[in-house]
Amino acid sequence: MPFSLYLHIPYCLVKCPYCDFNAYGVRTWPEKDYVQALCAELRFYADREPWQGESVATIYFGGGTPSLFAPASIAQVLEAVSGCFTVLPSAEITLEADPASVTRETLAGFRAVGVNRLSFGVQSFQAKLLKTLGRLHTAEDGPRVLAWAREAGFTNLTMDLIFGVPGQTLALLADDLHQTCAAAPEHVSLYNLTYEEGTPFFRRKQQGKLRPIEEEEEIEMFSCIRETLQVQGYQHYEISNFARAGFASRHNANYWQGGDYLGLGAGAHSYARVPEWGRRWSNERKPQAYMRKAVTEGSALDCQEQLTYAQARGEFLFLRLRQLEGFVLATFSERFGVPLVEAFPHVSDFVVEGLLREDGGRLALTSKGLLMADSIFASFV
Ligand code: SF4
């Protein structure tokens, strides 16, 4: 089965105060050295199991802000990928872009070097909320960069939005959704703002300087998002993701279906289904340490773990249940040698409570279950 390749670019123009990704706000970045490190890692894994001789189905430049890198640097990485692996002709090649860091020319450049999907971190169309979120771009930049991407020939665009931002009302959210639909991306991701430990937002919340919106209001917002986007022809196919027919993210679908993925770059994570119940590992998080190690040793491995039978069963469930179509129950017993109800008897209670639905041999979250997805998933791990 072809695998997915993730390339992490950890630099941003500023670090947003809510972000806990492995990203660093910088004024300049060592683009050439970083590209060299990615290429060294690619060569290292190309000769090793289980990647050797395999094909790449999706490539994803994530971050951080990959759009800070010049199209020529992205081209260099893509050439190295093609030199190390067979890239399927139909490969989905995504690059995350910050509206504050792109021009008409750079977008055309990314298209010319083979990127065929752009993911824009728009977050909101409201000046006030963008300011709260500490974003550099303006309310007008979102629609503008989408139009530039169309001019550049992109036919597969996705947009990230955040909801549950302090100061956001249902009316402001409705306006964001209205503007999203007007910009007409093929795919939309909507994330509920969270306050992660170690971030300025977490501290401000602790100090009472930032007041999160009420849970009931967040639930109302989520319902509004689902209704609006579905009426506009977007299918809600994963907890946070909506797409027009044929435009669901193939890269993320591979994660949710438990496929192999190779993550390169600072702090990137990888997963392989073999040996036994699977293995996952991650790279050095700090960009300098990552580059040093990748260039001198080929690999920049920081930690790794062999999954246990129990871990693999839990992960199988919560990854597949993220997708609203759920999964075929028989695939669980085929993989783990035991029926699901025997491994997790409390699944029957979830069905009785209307949180999960069993239908035609498939198990999936219900609309009610969607609102409690985190606690349902926690019960499996
Ligand atoms: S641009 Fe994205 S990755 Fe960078 S700091 Fe902001 S939220 Fe994090």
Question: What this model shows, in words?
Answer:
This protein has 381 residues and is of the alpha/beta class. The chain folds into 2 domains: 3-255, TIM Barrel, CATH 3.20.20; 310-378, Arc Repressor Mutant, subunit A, CATH 1.10.10. Helix content is 41%, strand content 23%. The protein is built from 16 helices and 17 strands. α1 (31-46) crosses α10 and α6 runs parallel beside α8 (215-231). Bound molecules: iron/sulfur cluster (SF4). The site of iron/sulfur cluster has 11 residues, from loops.
**CATH topological fold name of the largest domain:** TIM Barrel
Q: Which small-molecule ligands are present, each listed once?
A: iron/sulfur cluster
Q: What is the mean pLDDT?
A: 97
What is the CATH C level class of the largest domain, in words? Answer: Alpha Beta
Strand content: 15-25%
SSE blueprint and pairings:
Layout: E1 3-9, E2 11-12, E3 24-25, H1 31-46, E4 55-63, H2 71-84, E5 86-97, H3 104-112, E6 117-123, H4 127-132, H5 141-151, E7 157-163, H6 170-183, E8 187-192, H7 200-206, H8 215-231, E9 235-238, E10 241-243, H9 250-256, E11 261-265, E12 269-272, E13 279-283, H10 287-297, E14 301-306, H11 309-322, E15 327-328, H12 329-336, H13 340-343, H14 347-352, E16 356-359, E17 362-365, H15 367-371, H16 373-378
Parallel strand pairs: 1-4, 1-11, 2-3, 4-5, 5-6, 6-7, 7-8
Antiparallel strand pairs: 8-10, 9-10, 12-13, 13-14, 15-17, 16-17
The structure holds iron/sulfur cluster.
